[in-house]
Amino acid sequence: MTGFWGQARSLRKLTFWFAAIAAACLAFADIDITTRSPGHELWRMATGLVTPRIDDPQQWLDAVITTLTFSLQGVVLAAALGFVLAVFYRRAWVRILAAALRSVHEVFWALIFIQVFGISTLAGVLAILLPFSGTLAKVYGEQLEEIDPAPARAVQSGDRQSVSHFFYTRLPLALYAMRHYTAYRMECAIRSSVVLGFIGLPTLGFHLETALRTGDYGAASALLFTLLALVYSLRFWFRAGLLWLLVPAAFIVRPISANWSAANLAQFLRDCIPAPLRHDWPLEKTGRWLAWLGEQVASGAWNTALLAQIALVLTGLFALLASTLNSSHFVSGMARRTGDGFLLVLRSLPEYLLNFVGLIILGPSMLPAIIALTLHNGAIIGHLLGRHSDEIEPPAIPTGPLGRFAYHYVPTLYQRFLAYCFYRWEIIIRETAMLGILGIPTLGFYIDSAFQFLRFDVALILIGVSAGMTMGADFISQRLRRNLRMEAF
Amino acid sequence: MRYLTALLALLVSFGGHAADTQRPQFTFTAIPDQNEAELVRRFQQVADYLSGELGVEVRYIPVKSYPAAITAFRNNQVQLAWFGGLSGVQARRAVPGSEAIAQGYEDQFFKSYFIAHGSTGIEPADTLPQAVAGRTFTFGSKGSTSGRLMPEFHIRETFGESPGEVFSRVGFSGDHSRTIALVQSGAFEVGAVNYAVWDKAVASGEVDTDQVSVIWTTPEYADYQWTVRGDIDAQFGDGFKKKLTAALLAIDDRAILDSFPRSKFVPADNDDYRAIQQTAESIGLLSDF
Question: Signal peptide position in this chain (chain B) (predicted)?
Fold first, then answer.
């Protein structure tokens, strides 16, 4: 094992291996375009896009309020829980708990909570709260670790672990970065909130799914613009001063409620026990069940890994190229602002939505998922990388843009770029597994089938497999980043 | 600050409105087996009709998936549901004491159509044409009776293999309207669809029959039904189930019936769906292994 980690010290070698694996995966992947006339549908979409239409303003307003309250309640509670976890982030069990919470996608959490609490605010808020608190714990925790330790050491208090010691010497140094990151999570929460609508919670996604499914692209475009407007407007209203009003308002408008009974909960928990144990099956029958389950695990995990590795490398490629749109080395003035805006818009579109639209245009294969993951994640990394590139010096010898890109921009930024990609790796795996709900045979496909036939035991096992893969990627990427001394922030 | 106060007041007023509607309410849902706009139109009429007949406010809530309908039924978010054959069996297993009370006249002899894109050149036949083997194929929803269960049963009967082995690609479109659209566009070459949804789409001119046509009709089986929770009398008073059943059976408004489309509703009971349950068990959808 140490041999591998030692060898991987070379960034070039590492890149080569990831690219080679992705190329090999591509040979196995199903990437056909199966629609015969995608042009017609594209034309209808384009027409719809420029003729946005809201048929029922009451329903629209209701969905907007639900989208906002889910995300606001989810993020505020996740920030609180994440903060508590971050304070104890040095302890291994806290880190494992946080990794486990964020390794399960919002959509999977929602599918579970809808079973327990019905289609309710509690189900929606919990689905955002849990994975987000895991992510926030990790980021807050790392931000607190990276601060200058001098103030903490300077204060000679009797008890280094005391609460006031923490609040006065460590927290203030990390607070700015933490607030900044929380604002970004709010943007993610709005996206997640919309995606939860696709599986039945009453957010914008609920109506967006209907509109896209029925080809009503005018209505879909209005909802899409609403999503973009919500994300864009965040900078104006997601502020500490206003949150004192908005957060209580969110809890008043959509009080957290659930639709559940003890009997249902007990039944659900009983159904979560693996069938052979629950029914005390004989060995032979258990064997058949295990073989059937094993087939799903194998196929789902294989396809998830396949797709995620391809998407990871393409995401990297796209991010490198796209980052130039938001970099002072290549664009300035109006062009820069346009490039920045373009990446922000692309980043605001959830991969679930992009995949959904891709399936309509290109037909069922892995291709729409690959494109969706690449565009969404590539835009996120590209935007960050471009902004970071502003900090590096221009090349000593002036050359054309192509030469600048190949011999100055990429080499200088490469370490940072790989760090971002590895940071995103676990997220890409998580999302790949989830996109199976839309029909590609990654783990999400089998998880959706298990929920379809109320086999909650199978669903939980498969969600566990997906979480395990995500945590595996998280673990490997952490070791690689540590060995290669990459810094993402 | 003034704007904020106004905004807060507005939000609180919404909250008050939400609190008002928290009285126990009779709610029903339906499996989302086709175009949602059409479903909302259809079931809003049913809700209005039932409100009038039963003297309580009746509300229809749309859901996004078959299991969501079953879950809402299990969690008592809805007390009545328009289920398909298979989803009805699943729901009644999840809620002991629940009962099928009425079905459409046509649901006693329901069927599925296998449809194919014109470019395949597959001719209509009396048995499932062998020529479908090796094509791309789409079911409807994973939990659909007419779009999944019965078609898969007949595919296995004909070829002795699972759909994944018979076809070069197998998909689940999600609903019948989408199945028609996907086969018509050529995204899939062959598909299986609820005959009533197909006939209605053809009659209303939504299908280009040059592009896509029926190649085989399955034998008949029992499908859709109204299923009600067993504790409904306890929730809404003695005799409520009886009143509800009578109201459903008495629907004679052509506008409502045509929207299903069904000629009338007839009594049903759980035993009508025993064959569906056995079929689902035989092909492993509800199997005990």
Answer: 1-18
As a whole number of angstroms, the distance between CA A343 and CA A318 comes to 11
**How many domains does chain B divide into?**
2
CATH of A1-30+275-489, one of 1.10.10.10, 1.10.630.10, 1.10.3720.10, 2.60.120.260: 1.10.3720.10
Could you read off the pLDDT of A156-167 as tens digits, one per residue? 666 666 778 888
Residue A465, pLDDT > 50, answer yes
What tokens does A113 get?
A: 């909570």
Distance CA A43, CA B71 (A): 38
List the single residue in B with minimal CA-CA distance to A284.
Answer: B289
Q: CATH number for A52-155+162-260: choose from 1.10.1060.10, 1.20.1560.10, 1.20.1250.20, 1.10.3720.10.
A: 1.10.3720.10
In the predicted structure, residue A4 carries a pLDDT above the cut 60: no
Say if residue A456's pLDDT is above 90. yes
User: CA A192 to CA A104: how far, in whole Å?
Assistant: 13
8 Å CB contact of B12 and A363: no
Residue B76, chain A, CB below 8 Å: the answer is yes
**Closest residue in A to B8 (Cα–Cα):** A249
Find which of B5, B39, B71 to mutate to test the A interface (most A CBs within 10 Å of its CB): B71
Contacting A residues, span 107-136, partner chain B, CB-CB under 8 Å: 114-115, 117-119
* Domain around B155: 111-217
SS3 of chain B: helix, strand, coil, percent, to 5: 50, 20, 35
Residue among A117, A215, A288 whose CB faces B289 most closely: A288
Alpha-carbon gap: A361 to the closest alpha carbon of chain B (Å)? 9
Provide the shortest C-alpha distance from residue A122 to chain B (in Å).
14
ipTM of predicted complex: 0.86
Contacts of A364 in chain B (CB under 8 A): 169, 171, 187-188
Q: Above 80 in pLDDT, residue A316? A: yes
Q: How far apart (Å, rounded) are the C-alpha atoms in residues B122 and B124?
A: 7
Residue B12 pLDDT > 50, yes or no?
no
